[in-house]
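Hello K.,

You asked for the raw outputs rather than the summary table, so here they are, unedited. I folded two proteins back to back in the same session to keep the settings identical. This is the first:
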Amino acid sequence: MDTHEPSLTPVELSETANANGTALFGKDVLDKLKQYIHFNADGPNTIGHIIIEDHSGSINQSTWLYVKNALEAYKKIKPIFIILELNTPGGEVYAAQKISDALKNFDIQYDIPVVCFINNWAISAGAMLAYSCRFIVVAKDASMGAAEPLIVGENSQMLPASEKINSALRADFANRANFFGRNPLIAEAMVDKDLILVVRNGKVIKLDSESQIRTEGPAADIVLSPKGKLLTLNADQLFKYDVADVLLFPQKTGVITDGERDIGKWPANKLLLFHAPFFDVIPNAMIESYQMEWKERLFAFLASPLVSSLLLLGLILGTYVELSSPGFGVPGALALSCLILILLSSFALEIANWLEVVLLFIGLAIIIIDLFLLPTFGLLGFVGLLFFLGGLFGLLIPGLESIEYEVGTNRINAAGQMVLERFVWFSFTLLIAGALVLLLARFLTPRLAAYSSLVLKGNEQDASRGYIANDDPRLLPQVGATGEVVATLRPAGKITINDVIYEAMSNGNLIERGEKIIVVNLDGSFLIVDKWSGEKS
């Protein structure tokens, strides 16, 4: 049976070296550590520490914010190297790509290597982060792989992504593995469950079909990744196939106290890694683990799709109620607060640009002009709404500028996948907001407007100006009475009947100043009116 030779030179299986009871080192790894990690023989030596754990949530935009700020801090601190501690089941591919690029570029640009320590899990997007580090160290119970991209399908079920997305991610994994000299075929098999990998004569090779597997004889193949299963390697396999550089064995270490975790500083020998050769001789080694400030925690919280959608919902509903019942105040404050939080979160995550902000405020200005200064019966307001939603779309859906699509291969990158997911959130929120606006227009907004109209200032209610308070329903115009709008009904405003001014409300519709109205109902002491064509039925 013929084998399919890989497009890239297969990586030889490494020889186990430097076994001392605490760790195993891959071939030439100690020499590489000495080449890239330089410490001060007299001390002190600071080591950066970034941790991504499963209990803190999956990898997402919040994780990207945490890592980005950590790397910015380490540019100033200049540690001798950074430990990226992973124990994660994965998360968003686009966020993982940004983190991976940042880690790799930080290593190259600032000569500060990143050592990935897989302390149990580096699954899915976590595997991508590991591949982006110069060195990978694994604990004895570590596992890495199973990185097939998933999308949310019907009934919130997780389904495999399309071949377009899978193909792009497969190439991405292969490139990241190859960058630091690891086997790209193994990386691809973690993404593609249809890839068949076997070990033949000490080399990992890819086969076209299962019929090419050698099952007999002294040179029988060892099936590493069978067809139909994503590749996930345990610690021994990661070390054996040169994915991991160092394999650590369990042993007692010092306990990191709660106080040390709170301030983010503790002696390095409290980590298992610093009981292994090379690391154990670094004098006065001190871990400086990055701790997010409260502002960063707030931005990380706001970055989640659910919270972003709730902010958008609050912005839309607050704006509608405030414009419908001017003077009430609370809905407007809610809308403004939501808008500020959306802007702050977007700029903190570096997903906003000034064009989107300008579009948003231009749209809001056009809507206000249409409502208060230059009524166009909704035409100008519709244009303003398009500008407003366009700005919000750019703020709440990051990655638009990073979408890549290859026509020839039908590949779409992870940014495209993430944009599609966020677009679903955005659209669903708009649908909910639209439904709630209709309910507010029918039931709640008129009552809010009635309440706000009770709180007036100046001489608006001066009897000399023809105003009569709606105190006694018996003194009010009855159903069928006609008049004219003197203060636009949105839906609350003022009307005049027989030269007397009354507070009134429409049935949720906008009725402009100067239009004829007819009383259609009495709601307590408030007049409910509608447009009048001039003829009584």
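The second followed immediately with the same parameters:
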Amino acid sequence: MHFLLPAGWFDWTLGGGFSFVFLWLISVPST
């Protein structure tokens, strides 16, 4: 396992996380 992350790991994780959450929110019917 690689514990040393690239320089842009934070931006990539942040962008990917927001995208995933956004897709999840729009895919799940709001109650």
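Helices lie at 9-27.

Happy to rerun anything if the numbers look odd on your end.

Regards,
P.
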